[in-house]
Amino acid sequence: MLKVVVFTGAGISAESGIKTFRGSDGLWENYKIEEVATPEAWVNDPRKVLDFYNQRREQVRKAKPNNAHKALVKLEEKFDVTIITQNIDDLHSRAGSKKIVHLHGEIMKSRSTLKPYKVYDIKGSTLNYNDVCDMGAQLRPHIVWFGESVPNMELAYEITNKADIFIVIGTSLTVYPAAGLVEFARKESAKYVIDPDKIPMGLMDGVEHIMMNASEGTSILVKKLLEGYIKGRFKSLMQLDFGYYYL
Q: Could you report the per-residue pLDDT of 114-137, keeping only the tens digit for each?
């Protein structure tokens, strides 16, 4: 079964109503990053950090998976699909995707400040000061903050390097180290970028840029890939509406 790796960013969730990082109407513009999204912020004012993420968590709870999330689930009918996401929301899992790697954490979970491997689901929208783990330590958002390492990065590199088809959806490819993921896609892999804006491709060559929003572009690409599978055309040069590639 051909391996499809999909790398998603804020653009895919924006269509579900989740405000983008530093968007013109986003929550981030009301806060300085260093005040809510760094280890230092947590030490200086944990209540403010918790309040910020409680607001974002409530926003995520109200959002619903859109057609892009749903189309990627449909792709699993014929392909081995892994989602690697920069997003901290749970929309991919709620849509039904089975294999998801979260690079920057998961907002619907908390973790112990004493033992980081102790991770808990958050019931509802609120994580409070004095909410503790089973060892009595304060719980913090299960988020990778600025200045912290990205634990799943090596796993993401390994998965990307095995992709037969690599798809990038809704990310500006400017936030590192995650943006460097594209450089691990093999030269012979089919590569697609779905985004209405021009974005830097770095060292990734042979890319078809589908200049559409996430829902429209993903739905069309998934349909074409499934049609190609059904016709048994993946062993030779194949033409989609977006171009040619070898598999």
A: 999 999 999 889 999 999 999 999
